[in-house]
Amino acid sequence: MEHVPAARWITEAATAAETQGPGNLLRVVLIVMIVGCVLGAWFLLRGYRRDDD
Length: 53
Prior knowledge:
Largest sheet: none
Keywords: Membrane, Transmembrane, Transmembrane helix
Oligomer: single chain
Number of strands: 0
Distance between the termini: 70 Å
Radius of gyration: 22 Å
Shape: rod-shaped
Helix content: 55-70%
Structural class: mainly alpha
């Protein structure tokens, strides 16, 4: 196994990240979708709370 200096490893990782394609966009879309589902469920389910005061 070849020893790669840290600075070179970081630059190689950065250039590889640019050529990955739609991975970052898909990750953002999935996170927004999950957060939206959680907020939508909270908004809909909060109306079913019973206040027996």
